[in-house]
């Protein structure tokens, strides 16, 4: 005789692990057809690839487990990723020795990577959104420091878009499309640290919108501009929190 209701019916569940553990990898696709590529040895001097190894490995996810895909032309970390499992895009990235930032761009056809037109400036840690033939990348870090630059890709060539309001390294903290992208948090130019700034892109310019609940960096973001999910990251300390964005506010 007691009335009961479910207040929250959303939860995370564990699935198959990666074949190769790594950090700062690129990614693309959807939950049942995803891919992860590149990245860095998670332990400097560790047993899996040597000190600070830059991986060229690609793994494909089918909603259940991972399988090995085609290798990148050049292994590197902190690439911007966009597109799908059968039409992916990997932009920029970092590979030592100096100068570490790369302008290299690669496209994936579901089995192999091929080099295409370089992005205008060698950059790593950019935010990214869109598809293989209509992508946008923004922010990140060059050899000269943190930048707010935006570049749009049409499948062949790169053009300059509207700059971020705040220069920052975003990595996976961005999602959406070329004309409706979202950037959440990020790592500011030193001596700055994490930020709570959120910006939306409309295909020509960025505008600052309602802030994230806390300063956050190295978080991951998925979905579309009006229905996005931000999860994990470093506040600091590192967090397991997830927040939903409805195009106006975070819950």
- Helical content stands at under 10%
Q: SSE order in H/E notation?
A: EEEEEEEEEEEEEEEEEEEEEEE
- Tell me the overall shape: globular
Spatial order of the strands forming the largest sheet: 1-2-3-4
Mean pLDDT: 94
| Low-pLDDT residue spans | none
Tally of extended strands? Answer: 23
- Which structural class should the secondary elements be placed in? mainly beta
- In terms of DSSP E residues, the strand content is 25-35%
Number of DSSP helical runs: 0
Radius of gyration: 18 Å
Largest sheet: 4 strands, antiparallel
The rounded distance between the terminal residues' Cα atoms is 32 Å
What does this entry show, briefly?
This protein has 251 residues and is an all-beta fold. It has no helices and 23 strands.
What topology emerges from the helices and strands here?
Elements: E1 26-30, E2 33-37, E3 58-61, E4 66-68, E5 80-83, E6 88-91, E7 105-108, E8 113-115, E9 127-131, E10 134-138, E11 141-142, E12 145-146, E13 150-153, E14 158-160, E15 168-169, E16 174-177, E17 180-184, E18 187-188, E19 198-201, E20 206-208, E21 220-224, E22 227-231, E23 242-245
Antiparallel strand pairs: 1-2, 2-3, 3-4, 5-6, 6-7, 7-8, 9-10, 10-13, 11-12, 13-14, 15-18, 16-17, 17-19, 19-20, 21-22, 22-23
Describe the structure.
There is one protein chain. With 251 residues, this protein is mostly beta strands. Helix content is 0%, strand content 35%. It has no helices and 23 strands. It has strands at 26-30, 33-37, 58-61, 66-68, 80-83, 88-91, 105-108, 113-115, 127-131, 134-138, 141-142, 145-146, 150-153, 158-160, 168-169, 174-177, 180-184, 187-188, 198-201, 206-208, 220-224, 227-231, 242-245.
